[in-house]
Amino acid sequence: MGIRNLGSLEVFVALADTQSFTEAAKRLGMTTSAASQALKALEEELAVALISRKSRPVMLTGAGRNLLDGARALLRDARELETAVTVSSPILPLLRLGLAESVSCTVGADIVGALFPCTKQLSVRTAMALQLSEQFKNGDFDLLISPVSFPDMDGVMQEAVVA
């Protein structure tokens, strides 16, 4: 069949490192039973025994030793790929937006529509501009859109977005 689950490889590598199902499971934040089942599933997929279950501490079989370096490399490559994709993605996990009421009533729907594809979760709060500026100073928002500028906000970049 082949390897279909990187999670089972993570269990295998953790087991090889710790030589204990209990310690491998702790490292991965799972139960010992789940770790054992993941390894058993990997062995069934590959149709080969990867560990000797008769010894304590757990010992790798010849097939297990052959798999170990490649499994480490594959997991490292998967982590690097995930990092490359998520770092290069303009998608924010959460964007907290403050919209002054006058902005909300006029172009709010257009702004929300433009920002929505850039985030996994968009939180929008509307209020009077002065009230929102205080909340923004307190860190309640990532972005504040207001028809007025607030010169007393040190360290905050202010840009005209609509003219």
What does the model show?
The mean pLDDT is 87. It is elongated, with a radius of gyration of 26 Å. It has 163 residues and is mostly helical. Helix 1 packs across helix 2, helix 1 (6-18) crosses helix 4 (62-88) and helix 2 (21-28) crosses helix 3. The N and C termini lie far apart (61 Å). Strand 3 (95-100), helix 5 and strand 4 (122-127) form a beta-alpha-beta unit. The protein is 53% helix and 12% strand. It has a three-stranded parallel β-sheet.
Question: Total strand count, please?
Answer: 5
Structural class: mainly alpha
Kindly, what is the distance between the CA atoms of the first and last residues, rounded to a whole number of angstroms?
61 Å
**Rg, alpha carbons:** 26 Å
Most strands sheet: 3 strands, parallel
What's a quick, concise take on this entry?
The chain is mainly alpha-helical and 163 residues long. It contains six helices and five strands, in the order αααββαβαβαβ.
Notable traits:
elongated, 163 residues, mainly alpha, three-stranded parallel beta sheet, 5 strands
What's the layout of helices and strands?
Elements: H1 6-18, H2 21-28, H3 32-46, E1 51-52, E2 59-60, H4 62-88, E3 95-100, H5 101-115, E4 122-127, H6 129-137, E5 143-145
Parallel strand pairs: 3-4, 3-5
Antiparallel strand pairs: 1-2
